[in-house]
Amino acid sequence: MNNIIETHNLSKIYNPDTVPVNAVNGVDLHIEEGEFTALVGPSGSGKTTLLNLIGGLDYPTTGDVKIDGVDITKMSENKLIDFRLHNIGFVFQAYNLIPVLTAAENIEFVMMMLKKTKQERDLRVRELLAEVGLTDKSKNRPTELSGGQQQRVAVARALASKPRFILADEPTANLDSKSTANLLDIMAKLNIEDKMTFIFSTHDQRVIDKARRIVTLVDGKIVSDTKQ
Amino acid sequence: MYFKLAWRNMWRSRRRTLITISSIFFAVIFAILMRVMVIGVFDKMISDTVSMSCGYIQIHHTGYWDNKSIDSTFEENPKLTTILNNEKDISAWAPHLESFSLASSGEQTRGVLLTGINPTKENEVSNLSKKLIAGTYLADGDKSILLAEGLAHYLKLKLSDTVILIGQGYEGNMAAGKYPIKGIVRLGVPEMNKGMAWLPLACCRDFLSTGKRYTSIAIMVNNRNEAGPLKDRIVKQTTGMCYDVMTWEEMIPEINQFFQLKMGQNVIMSGILYLVIAFGIFGTILMMLNERMHEFGILIAIGMRKGILATIVVMEMVMMSIVGTLFGIIGAFPIVLYFRLHPIHLGGDYAKVSEQFNFEPIIQPNIDFSNFIIQGYVVLVIAIVLSLYAIFKIHKIKAIAAINS
After folding, report:
1. What is the pTM of this model?
2. Of the options 1.10.3720.10, 3.40.50.300, 1.10.8.470, 3.40.47.40, the CATH number for the domain spanning A3-227
3. ipTM value for the complex
4. B79 and B227 in one domain?
5. A98 and B304 in contact by Cβ < 8 A?
6. Each residue's pLDDT tens digit, A98-135
7. Burial category of B2 from C-beta neighbours within 10 Å (exposed 0-12, middle 13-18, buried 19 and up)
8. Alpha-carbon distance B318 to nearest alpha carbon in chain A (angstroms)
């Protein structure tokens, strides 16, 4: 399998001039296409920082991040925004849908930015809503959806641009058991059937149990990397 | 979609939107009120002065203005009458036969500006009948006189008493006559109130032995700003008729200079007001940007270009600015109208200062709608220019810092 993501000697030091904090410390990580990877570790271990660096939301202090062989740490901010739009899907802990848009519009919005035609957008929105089981909620705004439903819309939004992989930061942290199970089923299905690569940070044992690869971080370093 | 997003965003936080719209709404109202009040004061001052003296435009015999002699008069001219009657920008015109005379009663004597008037036409120009505080207004065939209140008081005369006039008539004739007082008039301009008197035109012509002559024709216009172009048209149409045509700015330049000076001062005051307005609007823009930093971070994270994000935010600000401006203009109108119908009467020192400058001590706003539009436009431009700050701010956003904010 090809590596989608490669990090080399990746470090992120916060406050280097005052009280340095090594949030990520010399991480070498390779993620292959189609993996379903969980980043685990205690609070402050650097899971979110690593996800942010892989997602191009932050620049490392040292090291590099290559996506399909392209070093994103050398990209300008604007190029990185475009790169994210085309290649990376994000799912946030707090859903972060656009509150004034309906479920369908939240998904369509990403394709608007990609300049897809109305016909293409409508077709893809229908597909994605069906995949996450929310066809009947297409016209509902986020406030009219449960937390689980909002997170499913967020997954659909992340998939809208047909990205190379999806980064999910504690995606189940705000969900109840039923919603968590439902979301995990959807993500697993997308991973198996569509070969979509998922990398998520989590504390949730239910998510860890579903993951096929578990990378454990402590103090910004990988202390274990196991496949199950 | 971007417009839809901007529009819905605008109403997402009603409190924030209402604060922003309110700041623009009140800014527009204050700017309009300040402008129309200032313009209204000047309008009143100019109108008070010109309506009781020369008009916005005056036609007189060539050379009369430099040498105001009763011999420098001109005869009634039907062609001139037709020109004036056909001119749509003229709201009213009235012939004057003016001369300085001595008015006397008992031991008291005072120099007065005596004006022969066509009572009907004069009323259209100066609303003289409305200034009556005693007696009745003149009629064409009367052989009686109207006195200004201050003059009557000085001469110790009351209604139906007789005043004696002595002066120089046309071509050296001696002018003398006595006239019963038909009415007493109170003028807003104190200096005028002390020394003016009016006779019907025919009676005045008899007194001054001028035959069917005038010294001048006073013209009022629908819009003060039209006086210049109107003068040019009259000059063109009366070429070769031995008339001088002058605007009020040429006849009483000191008033115009005072007006220009005050307008200059008003520009400074307006600048200060706009600055205050700008800070108010800027504060609400800063508040809005700070409240939404997390949201901006998320949008940038999922791939929204900063340019598009800035466009949406500026679009929201422009829409709020337009709504605030429109409501401000609409909201200002009844306030201005109220003060137009119920002018503010100044008292105390303010009144004394007003009188020093020879105008009635009242503040009555100007209701020319162009002032509403101009002020609304200025505030709208300020709001839109300030909203461009959002472009700068969004350009500086770091996605991760914004998400964590």
Report:
1. 0.69
2. 3.40.50.300
3. 0.85
4. yes
5. no
6. 888 899 999 998 898 888 899 999 999 998 899 888 89
7. middle
8. 19
